[in-house]
Amino acid sequence: MKKTLSIIPRPNGSVSLTNGTFLLPDKLDILIPSMQYFFAATQLATLLRSSFGTVCSVGTGKKNAAIQFIVSDDAQTTDSYHLRVFPGGCSITCKTPGGAFYAIQTLRQLADCPSHSFPCCEIDDYPAFFWRGFMLDATRSFCPVPELLRLMDLLSRLKLNVFHWHLSDDQGWRIAIGAYPLLTSSDAPFYTKKQIKQVVAYASQRNITIVPEIDMPGHFMAALVGYPQFSCTGGPFSVPKGGGIFSELLCMGNDEALVFARTVIAEICDLFPGPYIHLGGDEIPLTRWKTCPKCQKRIKELQLQQEEGLLSWFTNQMAVSAREKGKRVIVWNDSVQESYDPSIACQIWSPLDFGRQGVLAGRICIMSDYFHTYLDLPHSMVTVHDAYQYGHSIQNLAGKKYTVPGSEFLLWTEKVYTRKQRDKHMFPRLVAGSEALWTESGLLDWKQFRKNLKGGSKKLFPSGVSMASRLFWNPPVWYSGLRKKIQRMRVRHHSRKSGIVQ
Questions:
Q1: Is 131-498 in the same CATH topology as 15-125?
Q2: Catalytically annotated residue among 283, 307, 408, 435
Q3: What does the alpha-carbon distance between residue 424 and residue 467 come to, in Å, rounded to a whole number?
Q4: What sequence ranges are listed for the domain Glycoside hydrolase family 20 catalytic (predicted)?
Q5: pLDDT at position 243, please?
Q6: 3-class DSSP state for residue 449?
Q7: Which of 19, 83, 97, 308 could pair with 123 as two cysteines, CB 3.0-4.6 Å apart?
Q8: Per-residue pLDDT, 399
Protein backbone atom coordinates (compact mmCIF):
# COMPACT_ATOMS: atom_id res chain seq x y z
CA MET A 1 0.00 0.00 0.00
CA LYS A 2 1.41 3.40 -0.98
CA LYS A 3 2.39 5.51 1.99
CA THR A 4 1.00 9.05 2.10
CA LEU A 5 1.62 12.08 4.28
CA SER A 6 -1.08 13.11 6.75
CA ILE A 7 -1.18 16.93 6.80
CA ILE A 8 -3.97 19.29 7.92
CA PRO A 9 -4.81 21.48 6.10
CA ARG A 10 -4.12 19.44 2.99
CA PRO A 11 -1.43 21.04 0.77
CA ASN A 12 -2.48 22.47 -2.58
CA GLY A 13 0.68 21.85 -4.61
CA SER A 14 2.69 18.72 -5.26
CA VAL A 15 3.41 16.35 -2.37
CA SER A 16 5.94 13.57 -2.87
CA LEU A 17 7.61 11.10 -0.55
CA THR A 18 11.22 10.37 -1.39
CA ASN A 19 13.56 7.67 -0.11
CA GLY A 20 15.02 7.83 3.36
CA THR A 21 14.63 9.92 6.49
CA PHE A 22 16.27 12.94 8.07
CA LEU A 23 17.59 11.60 11.38
CA LEU A 24 17.89 14.42 13.90
CA PRO A 25 21.32 14.81 15.52
CA ASP A 26 21.90 16.06 19.06
CA LYS A 27 22.90 19.49 17.71
CA LEU A 28 22.38 21.34 14.44
CA ASP A 29 22.52 24.81 12.88
CA ILE A 30 19.67 26.72 11.25
CA LEU A 31 20.54 29.30 8.58
CA ILE A 32 18.20 32.27 8.11
CA PRO A 33 18.50 34.90 5.33
CA SER A 34 17.77 37.82 7.69
CA MET A 35 16.60 38.52 11.21
CA GLN A 36 13.02 38.78 9.87
CA TYR A 37 13.07 34.98 9.91
CA PHE A 38 14.47 34.65 13.42
CA PHE A 39 11.12 34.06 15.13
CA ALA A 40 10.08 31.35 12.65
CA ALA A 41 13.47 29.67 13.11
CA THR A 42 13.18 29.77 16.90
CA GLN A 43 9.75 28.14 16.61
CA LEU A 44 11.39 25.34 14.63
CA ALA A 45 14.19 25.11 17.18
CA THR A 46 11.62 24.77 19.97
CA LEU A 47 9.84 22.02 18.03
CA LEU A 48 13.08 20.08 17.50
CA ARG A 49 14.11 20.48 21.13
CA SER A 50 10.73 19.33 22.52
CA SER A 51 10.25 16.49 20.01
CA PHE A 52 13.77 15.10 19.66
CA GLY A 53 15.97 16.79 22.24
CA THR A 54 17.96 18.46 19.45
CA VAL A 55 19.71 21.69 20.43
CA CYS A 56 19.68 24.27 17.62
CA SER A 57 21.76 27.35 16.90
CA VAL A 58 20.07 29.99 14.70
CA GLY A 59 21.92 32.63 12.69
CA THR A 60 22.56 34.35 9.36
CA GLY A 61 26.15 33.17 8.90
CA LYS A 62 25.80 29.39 9.24
CA LYS A 63 26.68 28.39 5.66
CA ASN A 64 26.78 24.62 6.23
CA ALA A 65 23.61 24.50 8.32
CA ALA A 66 21.53 21.31 8.15
CA ILE A 67 18.34 23.40 7.98
CA GLN A 68 18.23 26.41 5.68
CA PHE A 69 15.63 29.10 5.03
CA ILE A 70 15.80 30.41 1.46
CA VAL A 71 14.01 33.49 0.14
CA SER A 72 12.60 33.32 -3.39
CA ASP A 73 10.47 35.85 -5.26
CA ASP A 74 9.14 32.98 -7.38
CA ALA A 75 6.89 31.81 -4.53
CA GLN A 76 3.22 31.82 -5.58
CA THR A 77 1.84 33.91 -2.69
CA THR A 78 3.11 35.58 0.47
CA ASP A 79 2.00 32.53 2.49
CA SER A 80 3.28 29.85 0.13
CA TYR A 81 6.31 27.66 0.76
CA HIS A 82 8.38 24.84 -0.69
CA LEU A 83 9.54 22.28 1.87
CA ARG A 84 12.26 19.77 1.04
CA VAL A 85 13.40 17.15 3.55
CA PHE A 86 16.41 15.00 2.57
CA PRO A 87 18.71 12.65 4.52
CA GLY A 88 21.17 15.42 5.35
CA GLY A 89 18.71 18.08 6.42
CA CYS A 90 15.87 20.30 5.31
CA SER A 91 15.28 23.47 3.26
CA ILE A 92 12.36 25.89 3.38
CA THR A 93 11.95 28.16 0.36
CA CYS A 94 9.47 31.01 0.69
CA LYS A 95 8.75 34.63 -0.14
CA THR A 96 8.03 35.91 3.37
CA PRO A 97 8.43 34.91 7.03
CA GLY A 98 4.75 33.91 6.91
CA GLY A 99 5.48 31.20 4.37
CA ALA A 100 8.38 29.95 6.50
CA PHE A 101 6.14 29.86 9.55
CA TYR A 102 3.56 27.72 7.73
CA ALA A 103 6.26 25.32 6.53
CA ILE A 104 7.15 24.78 10.18
CA GLN A 105 3.52 23.99 11.00
CA THR A 106 3.68 21.31 8.31
CA LEU A 107 6.94 19.95 9.72
CA ARG A 108 5.26 19.75 13.12
CA GLN A 109 2.86 17.15 11.72
CA LEU A 110 5.60 15.20 9.96
CA ALA A 111 7.74 14.71 13.06
CA ASP A 112 8.22 11.04 13.95
CA CYS A 113 9.21 11.27 17.60
CA PRO A 114 9.91 7.55 18.27
CA SER A 115 12.45 7.37 15.42
CA HIS A 116 13.83 10.91 15.94
CA SER A 117 13.30 11.69 12.27
CA PHE A 118 11.34 13.36 9.50
CA PRO A 119 10.35 11.45 6.36
CA CYS A 120 12.17 12.65 3.24
CA CYS A 121 9.70 14.52 1.04
CA GLU A 122 9.02 17.57 -1.10
CA ILE A 123 5.93 19.73 -0.60
CA ASP A 124 4.75 22.77 -2.55
CA ASP A 125 1.95 24.53 -0.75
CA TYR A 126 -0.09 27.73 -0.82
CA PRO A 127 -3.53 28.84 0.48
CA ALA A 128 -6.75 28.95 -1.52
CA PHE A 129 -7.87 32.11 0.34
CA PHE A 130 -5.84 34.91 1.88
CA TRP A 131 -8.53 35.61 4.54
CA ARG A 132 -8.73 32.59 6.84
CA GLY A 133 -10.28 33.76 10.05
CA PHE A 134 -11.75 33.08 13.45
CA MET A 135 -13.90 35.50 15.45
CA LEU A 136 -14.12 35.44 19.24
CA ASP A 137 -16.80 37.35 21.11
CA ALA A 138 -15.00 38.71 24.21
CA THR A 139 -17.95 40.84 25.33
CA ARG A 140 -20.50 38.34 26.64
CA SER A 141 -17.75 36.17 28.11
CA PHE A 142 -14.42 37.87 28.76
CA CYS A 143 -11.32 36.00 27.61
CA PRO A 144 -8.17 36.72 29.68
CA VAL A 145 -4.93 37.63 27.91
CA PRO A 146 -3.09 34.34 28.65
CA GLU A 147 -5.97 32.44 27.09
CA LEU A 148 -5.94 34.73 24.05
CA LEU A 149 -2.23 34.01 23.56
CA ARG A 150 -2.97 30.30 23.76
CA LEU A 151 -5.65 30.75 21.09
CA MET A 152 -3.16 32.56 18.83
CA ASP A 153 -0.90 29.49 19.05
CA LEU A 154 -3.76 27.14 18.16
CA LEU A 155 -4.98 29.29 15.25
CA SER A 156 -1.47 29.54 13.83
CA ARG A 157 -1.04 25.76 13.86
CA LEU A 158 -4.12 25.56 11.63
CA LYS A 159 -2.63 28.19 9.27
CA LEU A 160 -5.42 30.64 10.09
CA ASN A 161 -4.26 34.23 9.66
CA VAL A 162 -7.09 36.54 10.80
CA PHE A 163 -8.31 36.97 14.37
CA HIS A 164 -11.52 39.00 14.49
CA TRP A 165 -11.75 40.35 18.04
CA HIS A 166 -15.30 41.34 19.03
CA LEU A 167 -14.60 43.97 21.71
CA SER A 168 -17.90 45.77 22.30
CA ASP A 169 -21.57 44.92 22.40
CA ASP A 170 -24.65 45.53 24.52
CA GLN A 171 -23.27 43.24 27.20
CA GLY A 172 -19.83 44.78 27.60
CA TRP A 173 -17.18 47.25 26.45
CA ARG A 174 -13.82 45.49 26.72
CA ILE A 175 -11.19 47.99 25.58
CA ALA A 176 -9.85 51.10 27.31
CA ILE A 177 -10.39 54.37 25.42
CA GLY A 178 -8.31 57.23 26.80
CA ALA A 179 -10.74 59.99 25.81
CA TYR A 180 -13.73 58.23 27.38
CA PRO A 181 -12.69 56.51 30.64
CA LEU A 182 -16.27 55.81 31.74
CA LEU A 183 -16.54 53.12 29.07
CA THR A 184 -14.51 50.86 31.35
CA SER A 185 -15.05 52.36 34.77
CA SER A 186 -17.28 49.59 36.13
CA ASP A 187 -16.20 46.35 37.75
CA ALA A 188 -16.45 44.53 34.41
CA PRO A 189 -13.11 43.24 33.02
CA PHE A 190 -11.48 44.94 30.04
CA TYR A 191 -8.21 45.05 28.11
CA THR A 192 -5.72 47.84 28.76
CA LYS A 193 -3.83 49.38 25.86
CA LYS A 194 -0.69 47.63 27.06
CA GLN A 195 -2.47 44.28 26.93
CA ILE A 196 -3.86 45.03 23.48
CA LYS A 197 -0.35 45.76 22.19
CA GLN A 198 0.90 42.52 23.76
CA VAL A 199 -1.74 40.43 21.99
CA VAL A 200 -1.22 42.27 18.68
CA ALA A 201 2.55 41.66 18.79
CA TYR A 202 2.11 38.00 19.75
CA ALA A 203 -0.36 37.44 16.92
CA SER A 204 1.80 39.26 14.37
CA GLN A 205 4.76 36.97 15.07
CA ARG A 206 2.48 34.06 14.18
CA ASN A 207 1.34 35.65 10.90
CA ILE A 208 -2.07 36.60 12.34
CA THR A 209 -3.68 39.97 11.62
CA ILE A 210 -6.13 41.19 14.24
CA VAL A 211 -9.35 42.86 13.10
CA PRO A 212 -10.94 44.73 16.04
CA GLU A 213 -14.71 45.11 16.12
CA ILE A 214 -16.38 48.03 17.87
CA ASP A 215 -20.14 47.83 17.29
CA MET A 216 -21.91 51.06 16.32
CA PRO A 217 -24.44 52.61 16.14
CA GLY A 218 -26.37 49.60 17.52
CA HIS A 219 -25.41 46.93 20.07
CA PHE A 220 -24.39 49.96 22.09
CA MET A 221 -25.96 49.56 25.53
CA ALA A 222 -22.69 49.06 27.42
CA ALA A 223 -21.29 52.31 26.01
CA LEU A 224 -24.47 54.23 26.86
CA VAL A 225 -24.29 53.15 30.50
CA GLY A 226 -21.23 55.37 30.91
CA TYR A 227 -22.33 58.03 28.41
CA PRO A 228 -26.16 58.14 28.34
CA GLN A 229 -26.05 61.65 26.82
CA PHE A 230 -25.03 60.08 23.51
CA SER A 231 -28.37 58.25 23.21
CA CYS A 232 -31.63 59.53 21.82
CA THR A 233 -33.44 59.37 25.20
CA GLY A 234 -30.77 60.28 27.78
CA GLY A 235 -31.03 57.08 29.82
CA PRO A 236 -30.36 55.91 32.45
CA PHE A 237 -29.25 52.52 31.18
CA SER A 238 -27.95 49.24 32.55
CA VAL A 239 -25.84 46.51 30.97
CA PRO A 240 -28.16 43.69 29.83
CA LYS A 241 -27.52 40.03 30.53
CA GLY A 242 -27.51 37.36 27.82
CA GLY A 243 -28.37 37.97 24.18
CA GLY A 244 -31.00 40.11 22.51
CA ILE A 245 -31.51 43.05 20.15
CA PHE A 246 -32.05 46.36 21.94
CA SER A 247 -33.59 49.57 20.65
CA GLU A 248 -31.15 52.08 22.15
CA LEU A 249 -28.75 53.51 19.56
CA LEU A 250 -26.12 56.21 19.24
CA CYS A 251 -27.97 59.46 18.51
CA MET A 252 -27.27 60.69 14.97
CA GLY A 253 -28.51 64.21 15.71
CA ASN A 254 -26.04 64.73 18.56
CA ASP A 255 -22.76 66.27 17.38
CA GLU A 256 -20.97 65.16 20.55
CA ALA A 257 -22.06 61.58 19.89
CA LEU A 258 -20.50 61.74 16.44
CA VAL A 259 -17.27 63.14 17.90
CA PHE A 260 -17.34 60.21 20.33
CA ALA A 261 -17.63 57.70 17.47
CA ARG A 262 -14.81 59.32 15.48
CA THR A 263 -12.54 59.50 18.54
CA VAL A 264 -13.10 55.86 19.40
CA ILE A 265 -12.32 54.85 15.82
CA ALA A 266 -9.12 56.93 15.84
CA GLU A 267 -7.88 55.33 19.09
CA ILE A 268 -8.72 51.82 17.88
CA CYS A 269 -6.94 52.42 14.57
CA ASP A 270 -3.83 53.58 16.42
CA LEU A 271 -3.77 50.38 18.51
CA PHE A 272 -4.17 47.88 15.69
CA PRO A 273 -1.72 47.98 12.76
CA GLY A 274 -3.84 45.81 10.45
CA PRO A 275 -5.63 47.38 7.46
CA TYR A 276 -9.23 46.79 8.66
CA ILE A 277 -11.54 47.87 11.46
CA HIS A 278 -14.94 46.23 11.93
CA LEU A 279 -17.82 48.50 12.94
CA GLY A 280 -20.55 45.88 13.38
CA GLY A 281 -23.55 47.73 11.98
CA ASP A 282 -25.90 44.77 12.42
CA GLU A 283 -29.28 44.27 14.04
CA ILE A 284 -30.20 47.96 14.21
CA PRO A 285 -33.87 48.68 15.01
CA LEU A 286 -34.47 52.21 13.70
CA THR A 287 -37.50 53.01 15.88
CA ARG A 288 -35.55 55.33 18.24
CA TRP A 289 -34.36 57.49 15.36
CA LYS A 290 -37.93 57.75 14.06
CA THR A 291 -39.09 59.36 17.32
CA CYS A 292 -35.92 61.36 18.09
CA PRO A 293 -36.28 65.10 17.21
CA LYS A 294 -32.50 65.51 16.80
CA CYS A 295 -32.24 62.57 14.41
CA GLN A 296 -35.22 63.78 12.41
CA LYS A 297 -33.67 67.23 12.19
CA ARG A 298 -30.45 65.69 10.85
CA ILE A 299 -32.42 63.75 8.21
CA LYS A 300 -34.07 66.96 6.99
CA GLU A 301 -30.83 68.98 7.01
CA LEU A 302 -29.01 66.36 4.94
CA GLN A 303 -32.07 65.59 2.76
CA LEU A 304 -31.74 61.88 3.48
CA GLN A 305 -34.10 59.03 2.68
CA GLN A 306 -35.60 58.44 6.13
CA GLU A 307 -33.76 56.52 8.85
CA GLU A 308 -32.10 54.08 6.43
CA GLY A 309 -30.44 57.05 4.75
CA LEU A 310 -29.27 58.30 8.13
CA LEU A 311 -27.63 54.93 8.82
CA SER A 312 -25.91 55.00 5.44
CA TRP A 313 -24.69 58.56 6.04
CA PHE A 314 -23.28 57.65 9.47
CA THR A 315 -21.51 54.52 8.17
CA ASN A 316 -19.95 56.46 5.30
CA GLN A 317 -18.80 59.19 7.71
CA MET A 318 -17.11 56.58 9.90
CA ALA A 319 -15.52 55.02 6.82
CA VAL A 320 -13.96 58.42 6.08
CA SER A 321 -12.63 58.63 9.64
CA ALA A 322 -11.12 55.16 9.34
CA ARG A 323 -9.63 55.96 5.92
CA GLU A 324 -7.89 59.01 7.41
CA LYS A 325 -6.12 56.49 9.65
CA GLY A 326 -5.24 54.21 6.75
CA LYS A 327 -7.99 51.65 7.45
CA ARG A 328 -10.94 50.14 5.60
CA VAL A 329 -14.23 49.47 7.34
CA ILE A 330 -16.06 46.14 7.55
CA VAL A 331 -19.72 45.85 8.55
CA TRP A 332 -22.12 42.95 8.87
CA ASN A 333 -24.43 42.44 5.93
CA ASP A 334 -27.72 43.33 7.65
CA SER A 335 -28.09 46.96 6.64
CA VAL A 336 -25.65 47.36 3.75
CA GLN A 337 -27.16 49.60 1.07
CA GLU A 338 -26.08 50.63 -2.40
CA SER A 339 -25.39 54.09 -0.97
CA TYR A 340 -22.62 52.67 1.26
CA ASP A 341 -19.14 53.73 0.17
CA PRO A 342 -17.72 51.04 -2.16
CA SER A 343 -14.62 50.74 0.04
CA ILE A 344 -16.74 49.27 2.85
CA ALA A 345 -16.38 45.49 3.05
CA CYS A 346 -19.29 43.29 4.03
CA GLN A 347 -19.27 40.26 6.32
CA ILE A 348 -22.18 37.99 5.44
CA TRP A 349 -23.73 35.96 8.25
CA SER A 350 -27.18 35.48 6.69
CA PRO A 351 -27.48 33.47 3.46
CA LEU A 352 -30.88 35.14 2.98
CA ASP A 353 -29.04 38.34 2.07
CA PHE A 354 -27.84 37.00 -1.26
CA GLY A 355 -31.17 38.10 -2.70
CA ARG A 356 -29.75 41.64 -2.66
CA GLN A 357 -27.22 40.95 -5.40
CA GLY A 358 -27.16 44.54 -6.60
CA VAL A 359 -26.01 45.69 -3.17
CA LEU A 360 -23.31 43.06 -2.73
CA ALA A 361 -22.00 42.65 -6.28
CA GLY A 362 -18.47 44.00 -6.58
CA ARG A 363 -18.15 44.60 -2.83
CA ILE A 364 -15.62 42.64 -0.77
CA CYS A 365 -17.63 39.90 0.95
CA ILE A 366 -16.20 37.91 3.87
CA MET A 367 -18.30 34.80 4.22
CA SER A 368 -19.60 33.66 7.64
CA ASP A 369 -22.77 31.76 6.78
CA TYR A 370 -24.85 30.95 9.85
CA PHE A 371 -25.43 27.38 8.62
CA HIS A 372 -21.72 26.57 8.41
CA THR A 373 -19.60 28.87 10.60
CA TYR A 374 -21.47 29.58 13.85
CA LEU A 375 -19.46 27.58 16.35
CA ASP A 376 -21.60 28.65 19.31
CA LEU A 377 -24.30 26.34 17.94
CA PRO A 378 -24.17 22.68 19.06
CA HIS A 379 -22.44 20.14 16.84
CA SER A 380 -25.87 18.74 16.04
CA MET A 381 -26.79 22.00 14.25
CA VAL A 382 -23.45 22.92 12.66
CA THR A 383 -21.57 19.69 12.11
CA VAL A 384 -17.90 19.07 11.39
CA HIS A 385 -19.00 18.05 7.88
CA ASP A 386 -20.91 21.35 7.46
CA ALA A 387 -17.77 23.31 8.32
CA TYR A 388 -15.67 21.24 5.92
CA GLN A 389 -18.09 21.45 3.00
CA TYR A 390 -18.21 25.24 3.31
CA GLY A 391 -14.96 25.30 1.37
CA HIS A 392 -16.77 24.11 -1.76
CA SER A 393 -19.53 26.71 -1.33
CA ILE A 394 -17.39 29.80 -0.92
CA GLN A 395 -14.85 28.79 -3.54
CA ASN A 396 -17.71 28.47 -6.02
CA LEU A 397 -18.77 32.03 -5.17
CA ALA A 398 -15.31 33.53 -5.54
CA GLY A 399 -14.64 35.12 -8.89
CA LYS A 400 -18.28 35.26 -9.95
CA LYS A 401 -20.50 38.16 -8.87
CA TYR A 402 -18.70 38.63 -5.59
CA THR A 403 -15.21 39.48 -4.40
CA VAL A 404 -14.59 36.81 -1.76
CA PRO A 405 -11.21 36.98 0.02
CA GLY A 406 -12.22 34.17 2.35
CA SER A 407 -14.21 33.40 5.45
CA GLU A 408 -14.34 33.46 9.23
CA PHE A 409 -15.69 30.93 11.70
CA LEU A 410 -17.46 32.64 14.60
CA LEU A 411 -17.79 31.91 18.30
CA TRP A 412 -20.41 33.99 20.11
CA THR A 413 -20.20 33.49 23.86
CA GLU A 414 -23.62 34.03 25.45
CA LYS A 415 -23.42 30.44 26.71
CA VAL A 416 -19.68 29.77 26.52
CA TYR A 417 -17.87 30.58 29.76
CA THR A 418 -14.78 28.39 30.24
CA ARG A 419 -11.71 27.27 28.30
CA LYS A 420 -13.06 23.73 28.12
CA GLN A 421 -16.40 24.91 26.72
CA ARG A 422 -14.63 27.18 24.25
CA ASP A 423 -12.37 24.38 23.04
CA LYS A 424 -15.23 21.94 22.58
CA HIS A 425 -17.21 24.46 20.54
CA MET A 426 -14.17 25.22 18.38
CA PHE A 427 -12.67 21.78 17.87
CA PRO A 428 -12.69 19.86 15.64
CA ARG A 429 -15.01 22.12 13.61
CA LEU A 430 -12.37 24.85 13.31
CA VAL A 431 -9.88 22.22 12.13
CA ALA A 432 -12.31 21.29 9.35
CA GLY A 433 -12.80 24.99 8.64
CA SER A 434 -9.07 25.58 8.34
CA GLU A 435 -8.82 22.98 5.58
CA ALA A 436 -11.93 24.40 3.90
CA LEU A 437 -10.19 27.79 3.66
CA TRP A 438 -6.66 26.65 2.85
CA THR A 439 -7.25 23.77 0.43
CA GLU A 440 -8.60 24.25 -3.08
CA SER A 441 -12.06 22.87 -3.73
CA GLY A 442 -10.90 20.11 -6.08
CA LEU A 443 -8.62 18.67 -3.39
CA LEU A 444 -11.10 18.76 -0.51
CA ASP A 445 -11.72 15.14 0.49
CA TRP A 446 -13.98 14.57 3.50
CA LYS A 447 -13.09 10.91 3.97
CA GLN A 448 -9.36 11.60 3.82
CA PHE A 449 -9.73 14.55 6.18
CA ARG A 450 -11.48 12.39 8.79
CA LYS A 451 -8.71 9.83 8.48
CA ASN A 452 -6.01 12.48 8.86
CA LEU A 453 -7.77 14.05 11.83
CA LYS A 454 -8.14 10.73 13.59
CA GLY A 455 -4.46 9.92 13.24
CA GLY A 456 -2.92 13.38 13.52
CA SER A 457 -4.81 15.44 16.10
CA LYS A 458 -2.16 14.79 18.79
CA LYS A 459 0.55 16.26 16.55
CA LEU A 460 -1.67 19.15 15.54
CA PHE A 461 -2.38 20.35 19.07
CA PRO A 462 -0.49 20.40 22.35
CA SER A 463 -1.84 18.52 25.34
CA GLY A 464 -4.64 20.21 27.25
CA VAL A 465 -6.84 21.02 24.26
CA SER A 466 -10.39 19.77 24.80
CA MET A 467 -12.05 18.38 21.69
CA ALA A 468 -15.70 17.42 21.34
CA SER A 469 -16.35 13.69 21.51
CA ARG A 470 -16.63 11.88 18.17
CA LEU A 471 -20.17 10.94 19.16
CA PHE A 472 -21.19 14.59 18.67
CA TRP A 473 -19.27 15.40 15.50
CA ASN A 474 -22.12 14.58 13.15
CA PRO A 475 -25.77 13.85 13.99
CA PRO A 476 -27.66 10.78 12.78
CA VAL A 477 -29.16 11.04 9.30
CA TRP A 478 -32.70 11.16 10.66
CA TYR A 479 -31.85 14.36 12.54
CA SER A 480 -30.78 16.35 9.47
CA GLY A 481 -34.27 17.50 8.50
CA LEU A 482 -35.13 18.73 11.98
CA ARG A 483 -31.76 20.45 12.32
CA LYS A 484 -32.22 22.38 9.07
CA LYS A 485 -35.74 23.43 10.03
CA ILE A 486 -34.53 24.82 13.38
CA GLN A 487 -31.66 26.64 11.67
CA ARG A 488 -33.89 28.27 9.07
CA MET A 489 -36.40 29.39 11.70
CA ARG A 490 -33.67 31.02 13.78
CA VAL A 491 -32.03 32.75 10.80
CA ARG A 492 -35.38 34.07 9.57
CA HIS A 493 -36.20 35.34 13.07
CA HIS A 494 -32.95 37.30 13.36
CA SER A 495 -33.17 38.43 9.74
CA ARG A 496 -36.62 39.94 10.35
CA LYS A 497 -35.29 41.84 13.37
CA SER A 498 -32.36 43.03 11.28
CA GLY A 499 -34.55 44.14 8.39
CA ILE A 500 -33.09 41.68 5.86
CA VAL A 501 -36.45 39.99 5.22
CA GLN A 502 -40.01 40.94 6.06
A1: no
A2: 283
A3: 5
A4: 129-440
A5: 79
A6: helix
A7: 83
A8: 63
Beta-carbon contacts of residue 499 (< 8 Å; ≥ 6 apart)? 284, 286, 334, 335
**pLDDT the model gives residue 76:** 77
**What's the Rg (C-alpha) of the chain?**
24
Q: What separation in angstroms does the CA of 465 have from each of 147, 421, 458, 461, 462?
A: 12, 11, 10, 7, 7
- Residue 118 C-alpha from the chain's centroid: 31
Give SS3 for 379.
coil
N-to-C CA span, the chain:
58
Cα(146)–Cα(67) distance, rounded to whole angstroms? Answer: 32
> What Cα–Cα distance (Å) separates residue 273 from each residue in 61, 149, 214?
32, 18, 16
Alpha-carbon span 232 to 288, nearest angstrom:
7
> What is 131-498's CATH topology?
TIM Barrel (3.20.20)
Give catalytic status of residue 283 as yes or no: yes
Regarding beta strands 55-59 and 276-278, do their DSSP bridges make them parallel or antiparallel, or are they unpaired? unpaired
pTM of the model: 0.94
**pLDDT value at residue 488:** 65
List CB contacts of 26: < 8 A, sequence separation 6 or more.
53, 54, 55
pLDDT at site 470: 80
How do strand 89-94 and strand 81-86 relate by DSSP bridges? antiparallel
Domain boundaries, the chain: 15-125, 131-498
> What pLDDT is attached to residue 1?
40
